Amino acid sequence: MGGNGEKWGVVGQLALSHPFMSLPGKAFFTGLFRHNLDDKGRLTIPSSWRGAHAEGDSFLATPHPDGYVAVLPPAEVEKLHQKIAQMALSDGAAQDFAARFFAQTQTFSFDKQGRVGVDEGLLKHAGITKEAVLVGSLTKFNLYSPGRWQKVEARTSGENFGDLMRRLGI
């Protein structure tokens, strides 16, 4: 082994102590997956998305006004929690919003096989009957019906995609 073994050992130690490698719950939700609901209405979350989460971690699933289900992982739930906690109890409009938002929102965690039971109302909101399209958006992911996802792809394809990137500064 000699000197090379020692150098690789140091590299390995450095890699293990890299700040991004040691952050618990740091997940990147990327990619597109098509999964069918099972007979009990459960949906399997991709294993690559589950890796940074423990079996009991709580996610929030909420209907998005654009006709899909937005799923917030624990890190995003914490950000939302902080925002909601800042709302004054005397702010009636804010309290009405919070009540309406959370009345439609489902808390879930995945089982050992990576499955989650998605509320029937959320599935109906997204138009999901059997097949769901799971789409990562880096810090969270979304659930679409195949037809609604096709519409998103059509709106964001070709030159439209480039225009969106420029508008967002990416």
Question: Can you give a write-up of this model?
Answer:
This protein is of the alpha+beta class and 170 residues long. The chain has one domain: Chemotaxis protein chec, CATH 3.40.1550. The protein has helices spanning 2-16, 47-50, 74-85, 92-103, 120-126, 146-155, 159-168; strands at 32-36, 42-44, 59-64, 68-72, 106-108, 115-117, 131-136, 141-144. Strands 1-7-8-4-3-5 form a 6-stranded antiparallel β-sheet. The protein has a two-stranded antiparallel ribbon with strand order 2-6. The longest helix has 15 residues, at 2-16. The radius of gyration is 20 Å and the shape is globular. The model is unreliable at 1-23 (pLDDT under 50).
Overview in brief:
With 170 residues, the chain is α+β, with helices and mostly antiparallel strands. Helices cover 41% and strands 21% of the residues.
Q: Report on the biggest sheet.
A: 6 strands, antiparallel
CATH class: Alpha Beta
Q: What proportion strand?
A: 15-25%
List SSEs in N-to-C order. HEEHEEHHEEHEEHH
Counting DSSP H or I runs of 4 or more residues, the number of helices is 7
End-to-end span in angstroms?
A: 45 Å
Strand order of the largest sheet: 1-7-8-4-3-5
Question: CATH superfamily membership, which one?
Answer: Transcriptional regulator MraZ domain
Throw out a few tags for this protein.
170 residues, alpha+beta, Chemotaxis protein chec, 6-stranded antiparallel beta sheet, two-stranded antiparallel sheet, 7 helices, 41% helix, 21% strand, disordered N terminus
Reconstruct the topology from this structure.
Layout: H1 2-16, E1 32-36, E2 42-44, H2 47-50, E3 59-64, E4 68-72, H3 74-85, H4 92-103, E5 106-108, E6 115-117, H5 120-126, E7 131-136, E8 141-144, H6 146-155, H7 159-168
